[in-house]
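Appendix B. Extra example for self-study. Work through it before the problem class; the solution is given directly after the inputs so you can check yourself.
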Amino acid sequence: MSAALLIDVILWGSVIAVGFIAWQKGPAVLTSSLREGTFDFIGIVPRIALGVVGSGYIAAVIPQEIITGWLGPNSGWLGVATAVVAGAATPGGPVVGFSIGAVALKAGGGPPQVLAYVIAWALFAFQRLLIWEIPFMPARFVWFRAAVSMPFPFLAAAIAMAIGKP
Amino acid sequence: MQDQPIKAPADDAAEGEPRRKRRKPIGWSMISIAVLVAVSAVLVYRRDGIDGVLDILMHDVTLFGGILPRVLAGCLLGAFIAEILPHDKVSRSLGPASGLKGLLIGTAFGAILPGGPFTAYPVASALLTVGADFGATIAMVVSWTLIGYGRAVAWELPIMGTDFTLWRIVISLPLPILAGALGRFVYVRMYPRGDDE
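Solution. Structure tokens for the complete assembly:
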């Protein structure tokens, strides 16, 4: 809770700081960026509403044990590959992805596989691409970034196997 | 593949004012999410009845209410940054010719950026608008996802434990730079003239 409050303070502090810089460049700069930001906000709210309010239902119907079963300790590179697919397919907010990762670790999942799962989910969870990235950014950039990110869960798993951590 | 026409990030150098992209209110991505949500809600209803549906609805509406002010903060942050950052300086330090330094700046910026997706994506979009290239922006977004402290402190540390989280971050440290470099490498070969479409 206090971490969330701290993040809110830093977030609004940054808004005020850049707002102050804009105001110093002239009141017109301040008002035009306030208007631009507000229009962005109004345009994005319906999309976020659908995504956030709806993602609970999607997460509720995904059977978590199927995902965790894929990440066994002896699953090797095949396990890493399934972990990447599972990470991309995992819906819902931060709680869902990390919880599945934690359950997989407790259930005896291999750390490199779980690492690949968490990193793939962080980099290109499909639902997050649709709900968060596409509304805010050019679609071309979003797909390009996701495609370029594809090798990195594998690289992270390889590093984890090489150094024997986590 | 695309549901909207996209302006090239750097095609407005001749104008004084950075041009912001226009969005269509409804695209195929929203329709597919809506269908997915509807199907899932029906499945939850058949399994848990109306109580199950209402439980999830209450929980998610509360979550949404909590996120809303942060979405506003993110949009304002993005708009201010697009307005106050000097176009020529951003092009120089984060543009296609910014080299490793541009990728490092993007990575550092992503790592210190406060907030969640509601901040990172509007700000990344603003950077593209004022002259950053795909490589530096990829480094920023990937850095925010993998080594940014927001999600790690709020969610990963309590759920995954300290040991896993710290090693995960250490192993992730080089990834934003590598992703940005790969992005730049691919981009100049996909769009050799430096513009889109």
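Self-check: The CA atoms of residues 155 and 161 of chain B lie 10 Å apart. If your reasoning did not lead you there, revisit section 3.
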